[in-house]
Amino acid sequence: MHLTTTLWFATEAERAADRYTEIFGGPAPTVHRGPDGNVLAVEFTVLGCHFTAMNGARIAPSEAISFQVPCDTQEQIDTFTDALIGEAGEQQACGWLRDEFGVSWQIVPAELPSLLSHPVWGGHVAAELLSMHRIDIRRLLAAGHVE
């Protein structure tokens, strides 16, 4: 058994699934078409998470739901951020971004929870994080005085 997240799009389900598997890797998406040949739904898996992208939405995605990508290096943060923003996305505060499809992502260092929860310097890390758009791991570590 596994959980599947469904993403609704107006007409971009196949393009979005292709883009996400291009960025994060994963098997080729499975496209389901209606009798008229139009794409109804696309199943795909990225980073071990199962998704179904469906066409026909009349409601835009909301920041109330986002996908967090824990990164081990600054290079991963930069690569995923650049790829998801592309030509039409938008960088937001604290490592959040909105991609060209309106889907929200958090591109963060894997160690962020432990940095923020430290009883002595977690507040300094949080203050530094709030001053960033794209996260810079070195700045967070310096705020926490971690070598």
Strand order of the largest sheet: 1-4-3-2
Number of strand segments:
8
Number of helices: 5
Helix content: 25-40%
What would the principal axes of the Cα set say about the shape?
elongated
Terminal Cα span: 41 Å
* Whole-angstrom Rg: 17 Å
Order of helices and strands: EHEEEEHEEEHHH
Tell me about this structure.
The protein is an alpha/beta fold and 147 residues long. It is built from five helices and eight strands. The protein has helices spanning 13-24, 74-85, 112-117, 122-130, 137-143, and strands spanning 4-9, 30-33, 39-46, 49-55, 66-71, 90-91, 96-98, 104-109. The strands form two sheets. It has a four-stranded mixed β-sheet, covered by helices on one side. The radius of gyration is 17 Å and the shape is elongated. The termini are far apart. The mean pLDDT is 93.
